[in-house]
Amino acid sequence: MSYPYQIRSAEQYQAAYKKSVDHPEEFWSDIASNFQWRKPWDKVLEWDFKKPTIKWFNGGKLNITENCIDRHLEKLGNKPAIIWEPNDPEEYHRVLTYRELYNKVVQFGNVLKNNGIKKGDRVCIYMGMVPELAIAVLACARIGAIHSVVFGGFSAQSIADRLQDAKAEFVITCDGAYRGNKEIPLKSVIDDALVQCPFVKRVVVLTRTRTAVSMLKGRDVWWEDEVKKVETQGNHDCPAEEMDAEDMLFILYTSGSTGKPKGVVHTCGGYMVYANYSFVNVFQYQPGDVFFCTADIGWITGHSYIVYGPLSAGATTLLFEGVPTWPDAGRFWDIVDKYKVNTLYTAPTAIRSLMGFGLEPVQKHDLGSLKVLGTVGEPINEEAWHWYDENIGKKKCPIVDTWWQTETGGVLISNMAGITPAKPSFATLPLPGVQPILVDENGKEVVGNGVSGNLCIKFPWPGMLRTTYGDHERCRTNYFATYDNLYFTGDGCLRDEEGNYRITGRVDDVLNVSGHRIGTAEVENAINMHTGVVESAVVGYPHDIKGQGIYAFVIYQGHGDSDDKMARQDIAQTVSRIIGPIAKPDKIQFVSGLPKTRSGKIMRRILRKIAEGETDKLGDISTLLDPAVVEEIKNGKL
Ligand code: WT7
Asked: Which of 464, 513, 515, 544 is the most exposed place for a label (fewest CB within 10 A)?
């Protein structure tokens, strides 16, 4: 593969950027013409942010799996497409060449068809990080089914909510998953979820942990049995479904400022072009490179930079089942040396947690294969940036700080490895094709450099979300209604004197905990499910490793007359059961009241300041219904 659209110098970056603004349609059609289309598009772009309507390459026909697999077979058939490193380093790893991946995807595509799944059907995938997860995703895409991957750490309730929202009648799961020294009983979680989802017709279960599971007759089937059936049928072909560029490719749920996660929708053509373009340019991928993204496929990072970006570029992508600290804190570095990884893409929270183990686990390793390092998910503090640069990159690997979101499909703001300069804790510059703008609260553009504001994007790019599943109005109000004619990211941002962007964090009621997005309202809803809870308010506070921790102020009935510690554990457990362990509050403080305005609105600003320990900066509290409660909360701070 060659990438004629790969930008190779700072001058080319400037020229490409200018072209993308002056002639966006030409810019993107040049890039899109490097893919395999069954039929070319009629129109490069149609858009109206007010509705919103966004259509890229409309009328074009394609299948993303032909671009990720079939087109590579002739030249790269024997090249590793996926290297899988299991949780337990003692277990043997697996390599799937492009040819083998093709065979598996075709085979599983036929399994899906045999089970009645067809174009447009929603398929929920709830699996651990095994190669079959990527195979399931690609098999859905091959037959035109819409995948909705749910991270293996989410609870039964979260799965049920997502199944209901997407009206998904099909589920693909595993008996269980390994994560460090833990075994997660995935199928049993699915069973709990399906009590609320009688419309689910079929559950395909892959064997991984050999945990005992119960299989419901007529509904549940084994992956292995279904594959055997396809083999017996002698069916070695699964023609890729011809998809319109704007047909849905997948739904991925993410948290917002309301209680209910929303199903972000990405479509086939634009997403493919953007995932590939951003992959090739940001990481400066070179043929032969081994790319290791440590995210889970359950998040957008895994969709774009474990599966679709690397495979569409004919790259070798590494899929890791385990966690960075098990069996020890040298796990990432073992993997880097074992497979001669060239690019490592991870999260600041992982870096900070590994920093805590000192240099010993690092020093045992060579790490000489590394060329490029990347971070994603949250602002990276300078200390972590320098540690990564000095100890992992040995000061010879450019670090790309990539800012983007589930909704953006791929990286929007980042330096390009070795091409445009890095600046610690800055995402730096927009990719060509991306037009950021900062606005103040009133939506007025903040012009010039050395300024800050709310980050918006003023022109569409191919990888942006098209809607939120089943509720287009929600998409409009969430992203396109805050500021006229702009996509609003929800992030605060500053632009330095040179025009570099630094993302400063969310400005809405969304937390970023270990790079995972969690809505405060969602956590509050879960806390309020506990029988003893009267009311709660959740805010974020700075946390050394997680970036942000979750601080809950709770009015609890039995407070004082029972065992508070037990009650707090119980509440945390409730949240874990309702959402998943990632949403468990780090601190729960019992209070007798919450600071409210006379109209009954909780003053989160005050709670945030208290949680952050800035109790002397509470501002004016005289407008509160009961100012005295603030004093009590301050004194009880954990
Ligand atoms: C939010 C999106 C995109 C993949 C992972 C998270 C924050 C993301 C950065 C970065 C500062 C970042 C933003 C954004 N974020 N990358 N490089 N620097 N902040 O995806 O769950 O959709 O969350 O993560 O606040 O809005 P997500």
From this structure: 544
- Smallest Cα–Cα separation from 243: which of 279, 270, 274, 280? 270
Helix axes 628-635, 604-611, angle to 10 degrees: 20
Model pLDDT for residues 484-526, shown as the tens digit of each residue = 999 999 999 999 999 999 999 999 999 999 989 999 999 999 9
Structure tokens at 432: 């060509």
Question: Is the distance from the beta carbon of residue 465 to the nearest atom of ligand 1 less than 6 Å?
Answer: no
For range 229-245, the mean pLDDT: 95
Tell me if 512 CB under 6 Å of ligand 1.
yes
Q: Is the CB of 262 under 6 A from ligand 1?
A: no
**0.85 surpassed by pTM:** yes
Kindly indicate the confidence band of residue 369, based on its pLDDT and cuts at 50, 70 and 90.
very high
Half-sphere exposure of residue 58: CA atoms within 13 angstroms, side-chain side: 8
Ligand 1 within 6 A of CB of 147: no
* CB 402 less than 6 A from any atom of ligand 1: yes
549 within 8 A of 541, measured Cβ to Cβ: yes
Asked whether the predicted pLDDT for residue 380 surpasses 80, the reply is yes
pLDDT at 455: 98
Q: Is the CB of 376 under 6 A from ligand 1?
A: yes
Average pLDDT over residues 200-225: 98
3-state secondary structure 167-222: CCCEEEEECCEEECCEEECHHHHHHHHHCCCCCCCEEEEECCCCCCCCCCCCCEEE
Domains delineated in the chain: 10-64+269-502 (3.40.50.12780), 67-244 (3.40.50.980), 514-635 (3.30.300.30)
Task: Determine the Cα–Cα distance for residues 123 and 112; give it in Å rounded to an integer.
Answer: 10
Contacts of 90 (CB under 8 A, 6+ apart): none
What are the tens digits of pLDDT across the range 520-569? 999 999 999 999 999 999 999 999 999 999 999 999 987 666 688 899 99
297 lines ligand 1 (CB under 6 A): no
Please check the confidence at residue 260 and state whether its pLDDT lies above 90. Answer: no
Give the sign of the dihedral formed by CA 28, CA 33, CA 34, CA 39.
Answer: positive
Contact status, residue 553 vs residue 630, Cβ threshold 8 Å: no
* Distance in Å, CA 439 to ligand 1 centroid: 19
Residue 18, Cβ neighbours under 10 Å: how many? 12
Pocket test for ligand 1, best of 405, 455, 548 (most atoms within 8 A of CB): 405
Nearest CA to ligand 1 atom 8: 377
Distance CA 271, CA 541 (A): 34
Going 264 to 270 to 276 to 277, the CA torsion angle's sign is: negative
The SS3 call for residue 302 is helix
Edge-first strand order for the sheet with 262-267 is: 220-222, 202-206, 170-174, 122-126, 146-149, 248-254, 262-267, 467-468
The per-residue pLDDT for range 59-98, each reduced to its tens digit, is 999 999 999 999 999 999 999 999 999 999 999 999 999 9
Residue closest by Cα to atom 3 of ligand 1: 405
171: nearest Cα among 220, 124, 112 = 124
Question: What token pair was written down for 476?
Answer: 């409009």
**Is-contact 55 45, C-beta < 8 A?**
yes
Q: What is the strand order of the sheet 451-457 is part of?
A: 436-439, 451-457, 487-495, 501-506
Residue 111: CB atoms within 10 Å: 24
> What is the chain's mean pLDDT, rounded?
96
